[in-house]
Amino acid sequence: MSNDKKNISRRDFVKGAATGLVAGAFASMGMYSYTSSAYNRLPKVERKMQDFGACRSVRVTNISETSWFNNAHLIGDIHEAGGLLVNQYTLNWAPFANGKGSAKGSYDEGIASIKELLPNDLQKAWDLQKKLALHPENPGGYSCLLEVEDLDGTIHKYLLDTGWSYEWMENSFKREGIDKMLEEQQIEALFISHEHWDHFWGLPVTVKYDNRIPLYVHDGFYKEGLQYIKDCGYKGEMTIADKPITPIIPGMALLKFDVPIINRVFGETSLAFNIKDKGLLLISGCCHQGILKFADFAHANLKYDNDRFYGIYGGLHISPFEDWDPKYDDLVISLGQWGFERIGCNHCTGHLTAKKFIEAGYPVVRGTARFRSASKDYLGNGDKISFGC
């Protein structure tokens, strides 16, 4: 991305976020729209119907959806540091803590304390950071394994995100056999949905087992994030997504959304799949762009079987802190217009939202509430869901 484009992106971030919490924070948290009537006022867009092929099925293994374990600690740390617009690398959270307290963190100082240990001695690195960080036991992480079946039966494996806590993610990887898959180079690529702590900061855990795995990131990554990729010991080929749609294999595409997100993060990528004879499957890390914008973009730009929305999976960013506002009910109602046949949700979707989906009669696939996941109303740690099988 050119410097001009980077500057424009940063100005757009500040402008969007500084509009005020009513507009900026809602956009940051994924509240793109609350009612379908808002869409009815927009001019009709001619559909481009880009053909990106088809696949037979997609199977998702939830490695970890528990990004943190205590909402009060996370929210309190952000509030104490100055609020939603504070640079995440200054929050003094592991692995970038320097022991100086709230809002006095530094990427350079934090990484200097552990750089020589990355990526091979992760336990020692995390133990060192625990002594310097605020609420060092709070981090968890978000990551899932995607197994995509071609029409000829070939299976392709991918990781979406790589979590946060080195300790938690290493244990989660071992629990699901991800460490062995990486060592044997069975996993073809790692997609980082966005630069947030709980999706990206656990990168050394992936790099420990495969330091050349192809990597995809949004072109809104900041200099600290790009430097971290190098400091982790990554030696592979990185693709910086700078187009709205990047085809991956037949039936699979990476979609790019430019949106300001809390704690000075910009942009998110999500995934779309065309499952033969079924229709469109959407998968997100956090969906900060909003469910409706995600669906609208796919509808306007992609060609998929039966012209039908089939499934959705991931963090859908509605009530991540388990709060609820009556206007969110309109968003739940609006989701019904797409007629999804299978819904797999967790993470920042929120337990309350999952319950609302179930009460609305949506086809939510429930989980088992194992490995510290808090609710059976959504797919928790270690749970699986299949689309098209």
Automatic annotation (TrEMBL):
The chain crosses the membrane at residues 12-34. One of its GO terms (molecular function) is iron-sulfur cluster binding. GO terms for cellular component: periplasmic space. Residues 156-222 form the Metallo-beta-lactamase domain. It is found in: Periplasm. Keywords: Iron, Iron-sulfur, Membrane, Metal-binding, Transmembrane, Transmembrane helix. It comes from the Bacteria. Its main location: periplasm. PANTHER family: METALLO-BETA-LACTAMASE SUPERFAMILY PROTEIN, METALLO-BETA-LACTAMASE SUPERFAMILY PROTEIN (AFU_ORTHOLOGUE AFUA_3G07630). Heterodimer of a large and a small subunit. This is Metallo-beta-lactamase family protein.
